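We store sequence with structure; for instance:
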Amino acid sequence: MSRLFSFLKPGGVLAFQIPDTRLQPNYSLMLEAASALGLSDRVAGVRSVTCEHDPDFYYDLFKATDSDAELDIWVTVYAHILEGDNPVADFTSSTGLRPFMKALAEPSTEATQFEQKYRELISSAYPKQSDSSTIFNFKRFFVTATKRRKHSIEP
């Protein structure tokens, strides 16, 4: 990222956002499902689509590249109202769960068992509301880094 930032002209902005599921049940239960089935070694190298560092890492990274960089860093939690039998499992099946399924060589018995275990665990972690909807709090991490304009001082 520091390399990308270095290409910006003064006034240019580098912005990114990424899911931050590191401490959320939808991610931790993937690891728990693998552990419960004795598959931890098989998924140990999985890189999930999530933020890998805390805000101070990105602050230090950009400031080391350009001490005058103007930074905005924040986290937002979106409360998704989902419908269906196991909507959080459905929501994560095409994103966060995908790398785990690939590591287990889907289609395979292990992948099927893993997905079933995950769906069981995630259903308990995100209970239904009185109207059968499910609230899925989904955290996202945002950064904007602006290269400051250089002001010339005229005599």
